Amino acid sequence: MRNRILGILLAILTVVGGLNLVQAVRRHFTSEHRTSAPATTTVDDFSKKWTKNGVYLDRTFPVSDGQMLVVDVQHADVEVTTGATDQAHLTVKVNASSESRAREIFDHMRFEAFQDGDRIVLRSKPTDDWEWNGRFSIDVLAQIPQRFDLDVSSTHGDVALESVDGTVTLNTTHGDVDAERIAGPSIRMESTHGEIHANALLADELAVQTTHGDISVGSIRSSLFRVFTTHSDIDIAELEGAGELQTTHGDVSAGILKNGGLQIQTTHGDVEIALPADVVASVDFRGERVDLSSVFSFDGVREKDHAKGNLNGGGQALTVSTTFGEVSVHSR
Question: Quick check: helix, strand or coil at residue 4?
């Protein structure tokens, strides 16, 4: 009987010892795993956070009014927001079907951000040995002061800009360009196979150009401007200054506040312009049909397909022509 009791006690002690051993081993490996995990991951001076939505890259630089942001990226949408701040905050986001795919795209793009004197630069330098396949998106967001110069370039992506005061260049291919209010010495907005839209453009010199895309602007005030597209329409609600509106295979609509010398031209499209009743201009209107409102005091030659002469005594030249289309001139 005593031997039987001793055997039971030995079995119990063996089981308890085994449990203690298992728990000790578990604590050891759990502790080792926790200590080996890194707290943060950094690549190329960016703080990088992995999420199910892709890769985020953040970089912040101290800046002051009047400095410049340069963005030169590929296959990316770019959005620039402005406000009362003394920092330039740059963010890059990559979305793909998986985290590993997003990381592969990011590594291929080789983004870098740095400060070079008064310039804040964000650019990508894609490797040559990589194929663009699969679905993904790259979004670049820049937050800067409202008084800042800009030089933004992208390919196969849209460019969007909030209100800014400064010298501005926006350029993309196969993407749209959208802006709120831009005021500065020089403004250039360019795209190919994309539309260009803006609320207001105020500049000494202005160039807006695209191909196979409409151009629409709420207000243009410029000492010298050129607005050009092909196979698309131009719509300028308010226009003041000297310059040219030109398209092919598209309509042109413009509300002219003050004529500083203007040429409007299209082929295979109609032209509609609105003028103040008291506008002074030396005009030459030509099209398949020319409709000049009788509200204007006109002195000159008027035929079905053209009108040439002076409005209210004459002034700066105002030339409108279309090859296959009508010209309509009425008062604002």
Answer: helix
The residue segments making up the domain with residue 158 are 40-163
Number of domain units in the chain:
3
Q: Which residue has the higher pLDDT, 53 or 175?
A: 175
Top pLDDT among 26 and 296 is at 296
Q: Which structure tokens are listed for 232?
A: 């698309």
pTM of the model: 0.82
Verify that 97 and 201 share a domain, yes or no. no
Least confident of 21-30, 181-190, 225-234, 269-278: 21-30
First to last CA, the chain: 118
User: Can you tell me the distance from the alpha carbon of 268 to that of 263, in angstroms, rounded to the nearest whole number?
Assistant: 17
Which stretches within 59-156 are classed as H helix? 99-109
Q: What are the helix and strand counts (H, E) for the chain?
A: 2, 25
**137 and 226 assigned to the same domain:** no
Residue 156 and residue 196 in one domain: no
Q: Which of 130, 163, 196 is the last residue of a domain?
A: 163
pLDDT tops 80 at residue 7: no
Q: How many CB atoms lie within 10 A of CB 74?
A: 17
What average pLDDT is seen over the chain? 86
Same domain (yes/no): 54, 192: no
Which strand (E) or helix (H) includes residue 6?
helix 2-36
Please state whether beta strands 289-292 and 298-302 pair in parallel, antiparallel, or not at all (unpaired): unpaired
- Reported as a single tens digit per residue, the pLDDT across 64-114 is 999 999 999 999 999 999 999 999 999 999 988 888 888 888 889 999 999
Residue 171: inside a domain = no
Is the domain of 82 the same as that of 219? no
